[in-house]
């Protein structure tokens, strides 16, 4: 059987392990490709990435890395074409969709305080929190990925492993790394907004009624945190059901300045006094929305304006 | 204006701060009630809990605490009635729904290795990951809450704070604590199962198509991790859309042994060869499902069996 891609920490290669070169990393199984920065396939996901000085677009903040995709470069590392969401770039998106851990290896780079002095260093597991497109200085499109360090608590929920179906290649992880819980932390402002909407989705009107009260999610149109630095203001927040929150974050749909939807049929429902900043809508369309070949019918229910009474 | 409930860390009271008694905790604002173990209301959520030796049902694992609700006790701490999902118990559910951080204070308890030697100690922020009901030895119903320690990375995503709407009382947090991303980590087996279902929800048939591939979530019927210790086997996993995953975890609906739904109209769609263990279904019905007064129409779309072709 062919070697199977392994996600997660490689036994006997804890964070901090240093390798002299890429052949050594290949031999250890920490990063298999000897040239490519991203290891993985669109079907399986990406299992590791190397950050080195080559990509001047990368922003290394230690526990958060803004990683730039591959492609569109000449042999002197200059942008000469748009990057496409294929190959390694698409593999990173698959890791985002599946919540797969990505091994991050930093190569020597004297301009980066987080990089090793020489060689390569495995620096632990990160997850792909989001991806979006930007236009670099020369006018070409690039894809960027926000990698966030996994914390012990997010990867150490033990499960009862079974012998069938879990093994990957020859390595059997002693504990399965799983996080199946949704973690949505809202700001006070976001909670207030959700209450004003009575926890009804501004796209479809759904309100999830639980025995203990209703549930909705607050979505920031322009995301909080670097590099987007969207504000935590009502003009940047929507009240959505989990499905439409997921679709919005993944760029399945976006919103025009007149509040009609793009990518889905319908219009954003809005309460009097809740003014959305069209600059944030433009930011989302520009960076997150990508047109599908056709509009897949993913509308669920009717726009909330027709349907709030239920 | 009345004092407003404050969620999160109290300034000048870092984790590890020790208090001699509950009056001191009240003065510091760390835990306001001088008798109740849970501070909060069903509308606002719970901002702090005290764990002390009194509740023999609590399980303290350090970073994970299985906390037992209040009520149903006599003055000698014996169970004499069913606990209800009201008051402090319901406040903890609200904190779960909103993702609010809960301050955990441990009281002296020589049987608990994580408890202080004397007095009370603030031990940091936890989140309410889930809640469920159980029947204790004497046959009475109790409510339990899984509290999981917040990690630095999960609470330190900075945002750009605004002066309006964020202040709580006199305290203005210097950084807003927000996590708006969904973290779903799947086991290899769960990923395989989702692929078999072509990422279509087994309840409503929805498949979220993104520009980079389709998205669904794997739901363990009997949860992984303590105290449930459900197995990571196909017989314990469902492929669901985010909405139905949320509803399932929150007990809005459950599944009968014949795969008909309870709490929602419809039937679980199932592929040939995917056998669900009815013991896990019974576990979910028993611990997570709670009947609403009426069935709210929360079905979205049609059962997948009629609808897989789209």
From TrEMBL, chains A, B:
Domain YDG: 8-149
Cross-referenced InterPro entries: HNH_nuc, PUA-like_sf, SRA-YDG_sf, SRA_YDG, UHRF1/2-like
Pfam families given in the database record: HNH_2, SAD_SRA
Signal peptide residues on this chain, from the entry's feature table: none
Keywords noted in UniProt: Endonuclease, Hydrolase, Nuclease
Record-level Gene Ontology MF annotations: endonuclease activity
Name of the molecule in the record: HNH endonuclease
Source species: Massilia pinisoli
